[in-house]
């Protein structure tokens, strides 16, 4: 059972909170999987001549991952802004 908290909005139930966390974990896992796939294809030599990453590969992977996370954060912030605008605009 949910009740009205501050601002008159119903509070999410425990099941809703669990579902939200599960959904967020799923999104993060999918993002990680995409990042590994994209950055590996871009940065790692497919001939696998050495057991360890070459210096150039490691640097490339670091930069690729940083850019991937930065892009993901920028997109997430933009989507949150748009969602907040829709939420505020819908009640007027």
UniProtKB/TrEMBL annotation:
It is a peripheral membrane protein. Coiled coil: none annotated. Residues 19-81 form the Tim10-like domain. Signal peptide: none annotated. InterPro entries: Tim10-like, Tim10-like_dom_sf. Its main location: mitochondrion. Transmembrane segments: none annotated. GO terms for biological process: protein insertion into mitochondrial inner membrane; protein transport. Keywords: Chaperone, Disulfide bond, Membrane, Metal-binding, Mitochondrion, Mitochondrion inner membrane, Protein transport, Translocation, Transport, Zinc. Pfam families: zf-Tim10_DDP. SUPFAM superfamilies: Tim10-like. It is found in: Mitochondrion inner membrane. The keyword Membrane applies. GO terms for cellular component: mitochondrial inner membrane. Belongs to the small Tim family. Mitochondrial intermembrane chaperone that participates in the import and insertion of some multi-pass transmembrane proteins into the mitochondrial inner membrane. Also required for the transfer of beta-barrel precursors from the TOM complex to the sorting and assembly machinery (SAM complex) of the outer membrane. Acts as a chaperone-like protein that protects the hydrophobic precursors from aggregation and guide them through the mitochondrial intermembrane space. The twin CX3C motif contains 4 conserved Cys residues that form 2 disulfide bonds in the mitochondrial intermembrane space. PANTHER family: MITOCHONDRIAL IMPORT INNER MEMBRANE TRANSLOCASE SUBUNIT TIM10. Heterohexamer. This is Mitochondrial import inner membrane translocase subunit. It comes from Chaetomidium leptoderma.
């Amino acid at each position: 059972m949910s009740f009205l908290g501050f601002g008159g909005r119903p509070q999410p139930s425990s099941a809703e909170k669990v579902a939200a966390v599960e959904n967020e974990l799923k999104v993060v896992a999918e993002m990680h999987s995409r990042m590994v796939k994209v950055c590996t294809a871009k940065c790692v030599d497919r001939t696998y001549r050495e057991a360890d990453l070459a210096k150039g590969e490691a640097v490339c992977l670091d930069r690729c991952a940083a850019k991937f996370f930065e892009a993901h954060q920028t997109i997430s912030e933009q989507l949150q802004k748009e969602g907040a605008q829709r939420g505020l605009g819908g009640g007027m």
